[in-house]
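## retry 2 of 3
previous attempt timed out at serialization; input unchanged, resubmitting
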Amino acid sequence: MRVRPSTADPSVKDFDDPNLIVVNRRASAHAPLAVFLPGTNGRPENVERLLSVIANQGYRAIGLEYNDTPAVVQLCVRDPNPQCSSEFRRERVFGDAKDAPVSNSVEESIVHRLVMLLRHLDRADPDGDWRQYLAGDEPAWPRIVVSGLSQGAGMAAYIAKRRPVARVVLFSSPWDFYGGREQTLAPWLSESSSTPRERWFAEFHRRENTAALIEKAYRALDISNDHITVFDLDQPGGGSGPNPLHGSTVRLPGYVPKWQWLYGVASELN
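## retry succeeded, writing output
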């Protein structure tokens, strides 16, 4: 199922590529929800295979469209303010940052988009009981897995730091830093987490350009070593762009077993 953000909420004007909803009808009616946030310039439809795998693990899966350009690294790596990336992500996630290098309304925020999509699905599919993933004006975070690639993984991590989610799954990010060449990690990565340590899972590709920095960031996030897996498949044809292995981790079918491990079986969360 595809639903444009502007269909769920007419106040949304930008970043209106369709959200992608994948449901395995054999799954429990009380299945937890898994939300995936694409990377910079990404689209939910680009990870349809991954969402299908997640759904077959017993979840309901949503690829969520959101304001994903510019990237955090485009604005904050040379900024001397150590809070730059934290404020950037707070604005994108909640829409209430006071000193962010980007601006978006609350209506354009990730949380609001997800809430409005769930309300729309509840109206369109009343037998689906989509309201179970809502708690007033916020998602019911303990029923929700947050995940993403690159910038989207950073947003998932930021949410999991501030809300107690069912699980967080990070693909090749975040690696937020400031100060230019010194690459000092952003303080928010080391802050205490509302989501318990045992619920954090992550991966990175051994040969992607920022592998060493991602590994350092995962240590700052205090992710257990046995909850981190390293990917190492080649990109068929070599890929395109300066870092093709970075995005390959959510696309190549050879990673299906690792995707299944990262998300786990939904029934284990109930």
